[in-house]
């Protein structure tokens, strides 16, 4: 049996993998200075980005929650895989053949990896079945909705045959057990054993943002099918419907680029939008749009400003209106502006494309209205605005919506909008909004109102040292900046200069702990050396080391950064020379001028002056 992966292969795979590509599949990253990228942290909820990625070092660190590590630790934390699985996944991604040490422990694998593999195998099975004679009904279903074979292939649409064990038999032949297939939600248990969960249906694979198949959505096709119209994979270890968005794997690049997302209601609506040119469309999977969906979207959008747009498309019927109100309760967690668009004559994007073409689907977005206005209209629609009682009742119902607006510029504008809608005096509306706001404050947070961000305190409590807590003195500043420069650009600096700069103890104990770890690195030319150095820093100073590696080093270019880091190293060397010179000047006052000790001190002073001059000449 194969043993552990060879360490040389582990290092090689990591060195060939750009950590920004892996993290960028889940988080929209923007430039944050020389060699640094920034985005919203995937490990905790935040409104402004504090998650830094440094591709050259292969390192990430969140200045908000303190999470940090390399590409392997990122995959392990995000996908709950073992170290071995993380290495194997990245090796497969770059086409690298791994070697295992004989006699070592067997590679550890989690059940999650088997669930991913089983779902991928099922997706391939369903896709292959779409071209069989039995699947004619599925091909006609797709064709009647404007989707040809190319569209089906692009979205991975397949067909589940009517029999009870077609998929089950195919996957058992590939080595999957009944327990694994059941855990993946692919089969159900009956009195006579397991049977296919999806039968006689058109099937859509539901993927995560990286493209891994998590589960399936399936639509009924046959009249004798007594099951629900749409049937989804049940909750599994890897499929959480409250966190999954159909089509996000295909839309993520444009969502990140355009900072816009269009939320539709079904799989065919997503297909219709993408084929019509709205390639930022996504949909929930058998559940209402909620806070977990927002968290996923914000990270992909890079939702750290009000420049983005989230457009919801809802049917104008009662169910659609109810869905819009539910979405509004959570949508305030977006920094982006939120809108609602409804199709003409109540047509959803799929039907609209069939009836009026791709242009009509694209034009749908031009009819969008701010979600606040849409909700206000829904709140007051049930009142008779021709009567005094009706207007007052509508005001009392709608005022809390305006009161909960965070933006101090938007709230007075919507006071005027509501006043116009009701035909009431603006001051009367403003007073009611203020009263509603006070009621919210005294009675606690309303359901669906924004949740204040909070990051749990560090396990080290007051012992945790960060860049923000370091003393603001010149001596600490040069030690801090020099360490940051060496950690980030040491591989391009003069090794002798770096060694001399880190030779003497630092004045601040936390920075000195980092200095010792960096000083003891065997080679700064080895990929990943800085990440390894951070890992060896003794607690409670490791978080500070991570911040130094991930922080924004002030420079306009790589060359300027290397030059600046080298200058800081020289200043540390100079500081050491000046310290020794000062000590010698004090000592020479205490010994006879013509003594051996005095001559030795004067010789050393001349050497120090020559060394300082050589360093100054080198810098110039």
TrEMBL record:
InterPro entries: DNA_primase_core_N_sf, DNA_primase_DnaB-bd, DNA_primase_DnaG, DNA_primase_Znf_CHC2, DnaG_bac, DNAG_N, DnaG_primase, TOPRIM_DnaG_bac. Residues 259-346 form the Toprim domain. Its EC number is 2.7.7.101. A zinc finger (CHC2-type) spans 41-65. Keywords: DNA replication, DNA-binding, DNA-directed RNA polymerase, Magnesium, Metal-binding, Nucleotidyltransferase, Primosome, Transcription, Transferase, Zinc, Zinc-finger. Its cofactor is Zn(2+). The keyword Secreted does not apply. Binds 1 zinc ion per monomer. The keyword Ubl conjugation does not apply. It catalyses: ssDNA + n NTP = ssDNA/pppN(pN)n-1 hybrid + (n-1) diphosphate. It is an enzyme of class 2 (transferase). RNA polymerase that catalyzes the synthesis of short RNA molecules used as primers for DNA polymerase during DNA replication. Belongs to the DnaG primase family. Contains an N-terminal zinc-binding domain, a central core domain that contains the primase activity, and a C-terminal DnaB-binding domain. NCBIfam families: dnaG (TIGR01391). Monomer. Interacts with DnaB. This is DNA primase.
């Amino acid at each position: 049996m194969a043993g552990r992966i060879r360490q040389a292969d582990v290092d090689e795979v990591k060195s060939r993998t750009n950590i920004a590509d892996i993290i960028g599949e889940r988080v929209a990253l923007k430039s944050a200075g020389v060699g640094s990228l920034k985005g919203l942290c995937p490990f905790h909820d935040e409104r402004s980005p504090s998650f830094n990625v440094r591709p050259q070092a292969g390192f990430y660190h969140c200045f908000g929650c303190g999470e940090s590590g390399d590409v392997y630790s990122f995959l392990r934390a995000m996908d709950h895989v073992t170290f071995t699985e993380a290495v194997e996944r990245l090796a497969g991604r770059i086409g690298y053949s791994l070697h295992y040490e004989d006699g070592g422990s067997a590679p550890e694998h989690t059940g999650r990896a088997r669930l991913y593999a089983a779902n991928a195998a099922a997706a391939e099975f369903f896709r292959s079945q779409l071209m069989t004679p039995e699947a004619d009904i599925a091909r006609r279903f797709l064709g009647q909705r404007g989707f040809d074979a190319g569209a089906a292939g692009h979205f991975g649409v397949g067909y589940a045959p009517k029999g009870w064990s077609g998929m089950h038999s195919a996957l058992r032949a590939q080595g999957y057990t009944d327990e694994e297939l059941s855990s993946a939600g692919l089969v159900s248990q009956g009195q006579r054993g397991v049977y296919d969960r999806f039968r006689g249906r058109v099937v859509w694979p539901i993927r995560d943002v990286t493209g891994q198949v998590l589960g399936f959505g399936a639509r009924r096709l046959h009249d004798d099918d007594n099951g629900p119209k749409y049937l989804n994979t049940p909750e599994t270890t890897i499929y959480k419907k409250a966190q999954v968005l159909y089509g996000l794997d295909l839309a993520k690049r444009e969502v990140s680029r355009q900072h816009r997302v269009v939320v539709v209601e079904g799989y065919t609506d997503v297909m219709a939008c993408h084929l019509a040119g709205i390639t930022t469309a996504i949909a929930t999977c058998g559940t209402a749009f909620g806070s977990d969906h927002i968290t996923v979207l914000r990270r992909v959008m890079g939702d750290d400003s009000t420049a983005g747009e989230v457009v919801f498309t809802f049917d104008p019927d009662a169910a659609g209106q109810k869905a819009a109100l539910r979405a509004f309760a959570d949508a305030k967690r977006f920094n982006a502006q939120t809108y609602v668009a409804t199709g003409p004559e109540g047509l959803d994007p799929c039907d609209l494309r069939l009836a009026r073409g791709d242009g009509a689907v694209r034009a749908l977005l031009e009819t969008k209205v701010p979600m606040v206005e849409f909700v206000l209209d829904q709140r007051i629609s049930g009142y008779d605005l021709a009567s005094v009682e009706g207007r007052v009742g509508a005001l009392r119902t709608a005022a809390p919506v305006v009161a909960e607006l965070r933006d101090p510029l938007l709230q007075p504008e919507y006071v005027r909008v509501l006043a116009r809608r009701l035909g009431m005096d603006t001051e009367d509306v403003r007073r009611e909004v203020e009263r509603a706001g006070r009621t919210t404050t005294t009675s606690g947070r309303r359901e669906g109102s924004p949740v204040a961000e909070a990051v749990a305190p560090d396990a080290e409590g007051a012992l945790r040292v960060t860049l923000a807590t370091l003393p603001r003195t010149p001596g600490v500043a040069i030690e801090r900046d020099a360490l940051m420069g060496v950690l980030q650009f040491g591989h391009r600096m003069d090794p002798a200069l770096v060694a001399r700069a880190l030779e003497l103890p630092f004045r601040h104990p936390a920075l000195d702990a980092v200095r010792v770890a960096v000083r003891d690195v065997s080679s700064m030319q080895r990929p990943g050396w800085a990440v390894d150095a951070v890992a060896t820093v003794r607690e409670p100073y490791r978080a500070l080391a991570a911040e130094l590696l991930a922080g924004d080093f002030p420079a306009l270019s790589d060359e300027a950064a290397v030059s600046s880091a080298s200058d800081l190293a020289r200043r540390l060397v100079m500081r050491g020379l000046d310290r020794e010179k000062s000590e010698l000047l004090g000592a020479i006052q205490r010994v006879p001028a013509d003594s051996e000790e005095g001559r030795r001190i004067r010789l050393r002073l001349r050497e120090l002056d020559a060394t300082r001059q050589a360093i100054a000449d080198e810098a110039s």
